[in-house]
Amino acid sequence: MSRIASARVIVTSPGRNFVTLKIETDDGLTGLGDATLNGRELAVASYLSDHVIPCLIGRDAHRIEDLWQYLYRGAYWRRGPVTMTAIAAVDMALWDIKGKAAGLPLYQLLGGASREGCMVYGHANGATIEETIDNALHYKEQGYRAIRLQAGVPGLATTYGVSKDRYFYEPADADLPTEAVWSTEKYLRSVAPLFEKARDALGWDVHLLHDVHHRLTPIEAGRLGRDLEPFRPFWMEDPTPAENQEAFRLIRQHTTTPIAVGEIFNSIWDAKDLIQNQLIDYIRATVVHAGGLTHLRRIAALADLYQVRTGCHGATDLSPVTMAAALHFGLSIPNFGVQEYMRHTAETDAVFPHAYSFAGGLMHPGDAPGLGIEIDEALAAKHPYKRAYLPVNRLEDGTLWNW
Ligand code: GCO
Ligand code: MG
Question: Both 43 and 130 in a single domain?
């Protein structure tokens, strides 16, 4: 038995905020878990420090499933992003410990490798179609097999997914939410031309993806999906807000463009109807926001029954600890689809030395025991927390919209 001797939360901001849980056992093992919830970081930090950690001390670190149930059922107030992120952090740290105790990389404990590596998609963006394609060509040269395309919308000052820096995109960019202006009409006119030109420049041997970021109505999404069909996108992501799951029936009636949903889901109950009714093709729930590996494996197993594959969220606000966990998960499950890979800055990578690597469009978690991730606490302490919010969106007449 390894008893949990201590657990603490480390908040650091090497370019952006990350919340990390570090658990130590009485026989000298340590485990790391990511607890970052973009724009609401300190709520999870407090949930862990004030309400979860006191319950962990002295418990057997190897009883992962039991501890998961204890934190989920035991809170009485189930689900929700803060709770499920906190549970995920504990779960990841315990799997890390189990891997280290076994002397095996985590994917071996999850059943071993089902593939050579996890196909990842990179983000190509630009103020114009030409800039985006230029950037996509750069990704292709680096060996990427899948590329997400987002371009500025003519007539709008800013657009989701488009940054000043072409290689690093950080939407949580201000200490109070910035306000962006959105026009569905202008946006809808701009996407098909982007994909048409992208196919001309990049050819057909690379997967092309696009994120709508929850902004359309179902019928608008159906139209966009249909407009994109000739260019065979790998997926259209988050076409409408997924609270209303019935909406996806309407989208399905109008297009065969594959649909990816779920980066803001936090439990199997958010995804169950979409999966069982075969209304989506890829489920994007992540280790950090959907209750850890224990729960995400359950979601993936349900999805597998309905030929839904995974496409886990992997933006920069998911720390390298989540990236490591996602790669062990992705390498081992049968129904892996693709993993998002939005590279972290060198500053972030220095705080989180890791065993995972990229080659030829695939990523591998490495063979270090456990997750294969460390935190340099001395360096982390040099980057204090800095409040940062995601933007909000308004229509051109001032109506608040989905960001
Ligand atoms: C994606 C996402 C992100 C989110 C971000 C919010 O597909 O990568 O939509 O860009 O906006 O993770 O914190
Ligand atoms: Mg997204």
Answer: no
Are 113 and 100 part of one and the same domain? no
Tell me if residue 313 is catalytic.
no
On whether the CB atoms of residues 332 and 107 are closer than 8 A, the answer is yes
Please report whether residue 391 resides in a domain: no
Q: What is the pTM of this model?
A: 0.97
pLDDT digits 0-9 by tens, 297-347: 999 999 999 999 999 999 999 999 999 999 999 999 999 999 999 999 999
CATH of the domain at 259: 3.20.20.120
> Both 115 and 99 in a single domain?
no
CATH classification at residue 34: 3.30.390.10
Residue 393 lies in a domain: no
93-to-59, 217, 321 alpha-carbon distances in Å: 14, 39, 9
Q: Which of 138, 157, 156, 155 is nearest to 147 (CA)?
A: 138
Rg, C-alpha atoms of the chain: 20
Domain of 332 in residue numbering reads as: 109-368
Name residues contacting ligand 1 (CB within 6 A). Answer: 38, 171, 211, 213, 263, 313, 315, 317, 340, 390
What's the CA-to-centroid distance between 394 and ligand 2, angstroms? Answer: 19
CA 400-240-265 angle, to 5 degrees, is 100
Residue type at 364 in one-letter notation: H
Q: How many Å apart are CA 297 and CA 290, to the nearest integer?
A: 10
Q: Is residue 390 part of a domain?
A: no
Q: Is 150 exposed, middle or buried (0-12, 13-18, 19+ CB in 10 A)?
A: buried
CA distance 340 to 338: 7
Phi and psi angles of residue 239, each rounded to the nearest 5 degrees, phi first: -60, -40
Residue 213 annotated to the active site:
yes
Q: In the numeric block, which tokens belong to residue 227? A: 């407009």
SS3 state of residue 206: coil
Pick the catalytic residue: 123, 207, 210, 213? 213
